[in-house]
Amino acid sequence: KTVYDSVHGFIRLSDLEYKWLKTAWFSRLQQIHQTGPAYRVFPGARHTRYEHSLGVMHLASKLFDHLFSNQLHLKIEKKEVPFYKEILRMAALSHDLGHLPFSHTAEEFIFSPDCHEAWTLKILNDPFVIEFLKPLIEEGNSLGLDAHALIKKVACGQEKFSRYENKVSFNPIERILSEIITGDFFGADRMDYLMRDAYFTGLNYGFFDHEHLIMSLLIEKDQHNDEPIICIDFRGIQACESLLTARYFMYQRLYLNPKVLAYTFMLKYLVKHTIDNTFALDSVQNYIKISDIEVLSMIKNGEFKDPFLSQLQNGLKEDKELYEVLPLTNEELLALENSIDLKDSIFFLSKIKNPTFLTPSVLVKNTFNQLKLFKDCAKMKIPAFSENFVLFERERLSKVLEAIQGAKV
Q1: Residue 173 is inside which H or E element, if any?
Q2: How many C-beta neighbours within 10 Å does residue 305 have?
Q3: Is 42 helix (H, G, I), strand (E, B) or coil?
Q4: Lowest-confidence pick of 52-56, 305-309, 333-337
Q5: Domain assignment of residue 359, yes or no
């Protein structure tokens, strides 16, 4: 079976994967926008978690084929390789199953202190899902491997999986497979969302040489404990830098776009109120009934007695830009906090740090076959930054600008 994807072209599927696309828990992702309410600012951003999950599976397969073509540092039997690839692909398809409507928009409100991975695990633990995965589970049993546990581990990553299913250590193979999907730097999840978001928003900043990047990745032995780790060949440094710049510019132009942040602010309160008062998040069967279309319809047609929520509802229905968002320096933020007229009407959204950071574990294999930190090998340096994002009613814009300007005089 094949499906045609806007970003990657033809994507091949096994019979089990194709059937997975038709299940209620996966097909629901067709109604979960990938970038939340960003389509109100970028009209083409109507893509969903459904096609993103397919893209992650496709890229994860490419990464697997390249990294596992030489198993020099992996303690893995040849007969296990096809099985591990099946696990990886199913985990990639499953990694976003737990998302709420409009993706990350209201998750911090509704799930706190949990996150969508908690519901991904609940879905994967559902008896119907386990029954569906029976062919893979039986194949794993014949190899002495637990397919169900592997899919959950690889889909969620070590940190999230250990948080919700007791502290569990990952063996080297599980860690490598999980990093192929969820890796903070070269994971298939990150690669796909940058390219997909760029394609559908029209912001070409998000494209980078992903083929070169994939071909530049290696599995080497950690110098400290001899365990296998993913690192970068020095000839792929420019491909890595292109991913970093793509991520930097997409954050600036899309993910931290002031209008997108303003719409997200409006929507998250309405989504939380609607879900809290309409849906029972007490079972997988109830959870998978919730979608963007369902919630948005209830928001538009509902009655909100709270004046604040009613104002937000009218703003969304009439497509009014009720709020402004500004990125401020610490000095500018202090000026607003000291303004008697403004301090009670300013919402402090968050302090955003440089989204292009690299974890210390990202290593490069240099010309002398030594492993060095990427930051010490790369020629391009993206400066660290942090910005305070504040939100306020649009009618107060002139007063806000006056307060900021006054502080600079």
Answers
A1: helix 172-182
A2: 6
A3: coil
A4: 333-337
A5: no
Taking the C-alpha atoms of residue 223 and residue 315, their distance in angstroms, rounded to an integer, is 57
**Rounded average pLDDT over 89-106:** 92
* Sequence-separated (6 or more) residues with CB below 8 Å from residue 238: 209, 212
Residue 360 has a pLDDT of 46
Task: Report how many domains make up the chain.
Answer: 2
85 and 158 assigned to the same domain: yes
Tell whether 172 and 253 lie within a shared domain.
Answer: yes
Question: What is the β-pairing status of strands 228-233 and 363-365?
Answer: parallel
CA dihedral sign of residues 294, 297, 299, 301: negative
C-alpha 332/C-alpha 340 separation (Å) is 15
The residue from 208, 233, 258 where one domain ends is: 258
CB atoms within 10 A of CB 327: 18
Structure pTM? 0.92
pLDDT in tens, 207-217: 999 999 999 99
In what order do the strands lie in the sheet containing 371-373? 217-221, 228-233, 363-365, 371-373
Answer yes or no: do 281 and 330 share one domain. Answer: yes
Quote the tokens at residue 393.
């009613």
Check whether residue 194 and residue 221 sit in a common domain.
Answer: yes
Domain that holds residue 288: 260-351+388-408
The tokens for 227 are: 């365990």
